[in-house]
Specification:
This protein is of the alpha+beta class. It is built from five helices and seven strands, in the order E-H-H-H-H-E-E-E-E-E-E-H. A hairpin with a 2-residue loop joins strand 5 and strand 6.
Length: about 170
């Protein structure tokens, strides 16, 4: 099976965000940043409001709860936006000819051959650890830090056919 596809900056950013947010370390960090940190600041807000400003405890409880809700509810959306922005800046600083652009992928019986304009990479199917479908892009994990991105737009193949060929 031969696939010709164009890997865009958006595909790479989406992959990086997905990979980051599905890691175990992110899940632990997210728990602390999303719930624990604002919970620690809630009593501080109430104490400052009642002791320094000498106002009602109920008023400052409502303000502290509002702060907590403002912090926790849109946390994932804000974090994803910040992460996307950082990745985009990082991509702007590097030469991405080998990473982005036109790719040719050939799936044979026991190997995968990837051609871009500059390099050729041969990978044995036996080293594939995981395959993830995210929208119209397939992530083929070779290790925990290396993956092949296959943009399944205008390839002429269904996602299921590509997944079957990869297994």
């Amino acid at each position: 099976m031969k696939l010709n596809y164009d890997l865009t900056e958006k595909d790479y950013i989406d992959f990086s965000v997905y990979h980051h947010q599905s890691s175990e370390s992110y899940k632990k960090q997210s728990l602390w940043l999303r719930y624990v940190i604002p919970a620690v600041f809630m009593p501080v807000i109430v104490l400052i409001g009642t002791r320094i400003f000498k106002q009602s405890v109920y008023l400052w409880l409502v303000i502290a709860l509002g702060f907590y809700a403002y912090w926790t509810i849109p946390f994932n959306k804000r974090h994803r936006k910040l992460l996307s922005k950082e990745i985009k800046v990082s991509l702007g600083r590097m030469d991405n000819r080998a990473r982005l652009g036109q790719k040719n992928l050939e799936i044979l019986d026991d190997i995968i051959i990837i051609h871009d304009g500059h390099n050729q990479e041969v990978i044995a199917k036996s080293v594939i650890q995981d395959i993830v479908v995210n929208g119209d892009v397939i992530y083929v994990y070779i290790s925990s830090v290396q993956a092949i991105l296959i943009a399944n737009r205008n390839t002429g193949y269904q996602t299921e056919a590509i997944l079957t060929a990869l297994k």
